[in-house]
Amino acid sequence: TQLLEQSPQFLSIQEGENLTVYCNSSSVFSSLQWYRQEPGEGPVLLVTVVTGGEVKKLKRLTFQFGDARKDSSLHITAAQTGDTGLYLCAGVGTSGTYKYIFGTGTRLKVLA
Amino acid sequence: ETGVTQTPRHLVMGMTNKKSLKCEQHLGHNAMYWYKQSAKKPLELMFVYSLEERVENNSVPSRFSPECPNSSHLFLHLHTLQPEDSALYLCASSQVGQAIAIEKLFFGSGTQLSVL
User: Fold this and answer.
1) CB contact under 8 A, B103 and A92
2) Is there a contact between A33 and A89 (Cβ–Cβ < 8 Å)?
């Protein structure tokens, strides 16, 4: 069974601080996605990384895919209260029931 | 119109009730999904309808029954549920067959289900 472990599970920081969230697996994925979910809503895709070692930036968010395509990280610079939410990584396989394997989630709270 | 619409947003039901969750996607996608989101557990895929083929997670109890009458509509029929079935049920859609770097899930806002 493919599993994705995220760390930390919970994170509470002050506005302006930096943070990194990790997503780790023993399985290789075709690509890896990061979603953000706000209270009362469904997850929304932030980014997809495909190539091992790939780095993508989305404003203050930096996403990296591990060289072996088994892990990923999300770094937020100068966090804002609007970054508050549940961050989910999802490993994307080829097909079938386990095409999208979601991580355990990181719940981030940014305090003003 | 939002891309993926789910109704109802909230549902409280007794263990002997029968109810249905509804999902509609306006994105022209060819695959629809039901996910269960419980506290402290990863998002769990329950069912997928993709290109008119149904794929299901074998661990989902038979008290959950999906129906997909066409590519835009998806239902989840519920009967004789247990309190541990209380969770957020999310519907999603995607366009299968694209390059892996492009394919992604579009989620609805979910139905928060409480079983008493």
Assistant:
1) yes
2) yes
- What rounded mean pLDDT belongs to chain B? 92
Local confidence band at A98 (pLDDT 50, 70, 90 cut-offs): low
Distance of alpha carbon A105 from alpha carbon A101, whole angstroms? 12
CB pair distance less than 8 Å for B100 and A30: yes
- A57-72 burial string, b = 16+ CB within 10 Å, else e? eeeebbbbbbeebbbb
**What CA–CA distance (Å, rounded) separates B61 from B40?**
20
Query: To the nearest whole angstrom, how far is the Cα of B81 from the nearest Cα of chain A?
Result: 23
pLDDT in tens, A20-65: 999 999 888 889 999 999 988 999 999 999 999 999 999 999 999 9
Query: CA A96 from chain center: how many Å?
Result: 22
CB atoms within 10 A of CB A36: 18
Q: Over the stretch B17-54, which tens digit does the pLDDT of each residue have? A: 899 999 999 999 999 999 999 987 889 999 999 877 88
CB-based contact B104 A31, cutoff 8 Å: no
Tell me which residue has tokens 């979601």: A102
Q: Which residues of A touch B105 (CB under 8 A)?
A: 33, 35, 43, 45, 90, 100
Q: What is the residue-averaged pLDDT of chain A?
A: 92
Q: Which residue has the tokens 């890896």?
A: A32
Q: What are A49's strand-pairing partners?
A: A32
